[in-house]
Amino acid sequence: MKNIVIGLLFSLTWASASVATKFGLIHGDPFILSNMRFALSGSFLLIFTYSLKKGPEYRLPKGKEWKQLTIFGILNTALFLMLYVWGMKHTSAGIGSLAVATNPLFITFLSTLWLGKAPGRSDIAALFLGLTGVAIAAYPLLGNGQTSLLGIMLLMAAMFVVSSASVYYASIQWKLPSLLLNGWQIFIGALILLPFTAVFADFDKHRFDVTFWKSVTWLSFVVSVISLACWFYLLKRDTIKASMWLFLCPIFGFYYAWLLMDEPITGFTVAGTLLVLLGLIISVSAKTKGRHSQTKITSLPRMQ
Predict the structure, then answer these.
(1) What is the pLDDT of residue 292?
(2) Alpha helix (H) ranges present in 139-177?
(3) Where do the domains of the chain lie?
(4) Whole-structure pTM value
């Protein structure tokens, strides 16, 4: 029962990220939103961990760990967030949530290439179904100003980058605890993103209003801290079962978009979502059969 409650909490909170991001972008700049969010969540995780956790493993990174954390922070936070939040500026919240659901498909595909193997038929089929599902769900929105082709391309690029980060993460023998790994890579990513924010952010049009701060607070603590804590808890118990909870995320994501942002749910929405879910099912089924026993999903579409 405990695993079910935590799984549902993960799905409910993780799926809320796209809508929370859209609210933050109503009067907010994408770069400022991203930087504020990760500066807060990264600082909180580091302060919390170093203040309350004891033991020799809770130490500062050293040697090559700084390089590894920097590479991971660039891929998993800075570059990913630049692409994702920029893409969300040009897409609907529902499509953003659905695009994030393709992340495990990219991870499986890239993990196979990382091991020097040709992707299997199920890998290719799953990724094709996922991308086709996003395209079908987005099709009726392309003409109404809610979603653009640029936005979809940016989201797909973001999923590719963050999936690459997950594969890189799995290739490293990390010695730091997961809380410190997450805290440092987020904080480093925020620092790397800072000069881009200074140069490209539109400070004149940005408003630090109540809606913006609600969005930043929700994304920083509910999504970046609580949701990921649930995810890592589930991963430690069973990677395959943990990935099953990803199936609920696009469904909850479209529900939030409909309920909170009045986005329509059409036949295209349902058909596209079903194709993405089918791709996820094929991917998870392949792992269950042991075809990807040497790889695992170790990170999510980080910080949607």
Answers:
(1) 45
(2) 149-171
(3) 2-288
(4) 0.84
